[in-house]
Amino acid sequence: MQESRRPDLAAMIAPLGRALMTAELPILERHGLTMWGYAVLLGLGREPVYTQAALAKSIGADKTRIIGVLDALQNAGLIERGPDPADRRVRLIALTPLGRSTRDRAQREIQQQENELLDQLTPADRAAFLRALRALSASVS
Amino acid sequence: MQESRRPDLAAMIAPLGRALMTAELPILERHGLTMWGYAVLLGLGREPVYTQAALAKSIGADKTRIIGVLDALQNAGLIERGPDPADRRVRLIALTPLGRSTRDRAQREIQQQENELLDQLTPADRAAFLRALRALSASVS
DNA sequence: TATTGTTATACTCTATAACTATA
DNA sequence: TATAGTTATAGAGTATAACAATA
């Protein structure tokens, strides 16, 4: 059986991702966040303990690239960064209450905006799309 | 009714797009194509007449950015580029037979690889995912 | 010697601005 | 003067390599 012709996945997904990120920027700016800063805050929500290198890797960034991001987040009081008593080479990163609430407020606005885009889909397609997206996303990361 | 929590769309889609593009690169390289070169060949398939500026815009690029790409494609014999007799300022771009066959062979390999990724989905989810993706992609471009 | 975080350097990609040739 | 294509310049973003502190 031959599948009907379709555009390349990449040719649809990559521009869609860029458009979503561009649409997020004004929201992040209102909350005083950059894209990488927001990515770090999201990454910090998943597991409790973090070295900078592990954090960078988990969000797909280079360890050298997030240093300035961490400096800014720390200056803004959104994260805490201190030496690990057990191994003084590593810095442990943790969300502050302000960091958590800022992240949550920004995420709420972002997902509301995303939901408006998803509203064009039927409920069944929307559910299937999100289910498929989670699966595909997990299988490439 | 409250929707169940989910990751941000952008946080799933953008990395997925990057992973797909990275996975395409070896295929494109085997066919002597760059990512932008392939994008141009895809863009040329949609409508017959093209000025460089219109072509650039249609693939989300700057007019200054595709000039080198067009030079390379022309040198490789994949496109023809000649002055428009009606307005000698503009250059009309067209696929050569070689350009068309190269594009089609590369696209076949790329979509085969993408299909392997999609095989993890149920047939229903797969169809819904592609349907939704087309709709979302069209609504942001 | 190996590893964490940091800094410095170089490289790629992209955007902006000037130039030409036509209109 | 306005526009299509081109070229040149500058800027942002990213990757690579070298460094200091600690293990």
What does this entry show, briefly?
Two copies of one chain form a homodimer. With 141 residues, the first copy, chain A, is mainly alpha-helical.
Key phrases:
11% strand, 141 residues, DNA-binding, homodimer
Description:
The structure is a homodimer of 141-residue chains. By secondary structure, chain A is mostly helical. Chain A has 6 helices and 2 strands. In chain A, a hairpin with a 2-residue loop joins strand 1 and strand 2. Chain A is globular. Chains A and B meet through helix 1, helix 5 and helix 6 of A and helix 1, helix 5 and helix 6 of B. Chain A binds a DNA duplex (23 and 23 nucleotides) through strand 2.
Structural class of chain A: mainly alpha
Distance between the termini of chain A: 31 Å
**Mean pLDDT over the full residue set of chain A:** 93
Shape of chain A: globular
Find the count of extended strands of chain A (DSSP E, 2+ residues): 2
The largest inter-chain interface, given as chain pair and residues per side, is: A-B, 46 and 46 residues
Provide the low-confidence segments of chain A as ranges.
Answer: none
Strand order of the largest sheet of chain A: 1-2
Alpha plus pi helix count of chain A: 6
Strand and helix order of chain A? HHHHEEHH
The percent of residues in helical segments of chain A reads 55-70%
Oligomer: homodimer
Approximate strand percentage of chain A: 5-15%
Q: Kindly provide the radius of gyration of chain A, computed on alpha-carbon positions and rounded to a whole number of angstroms.
A: 18 Å
Major sheet description of chain A: 2 strands, antiparallel
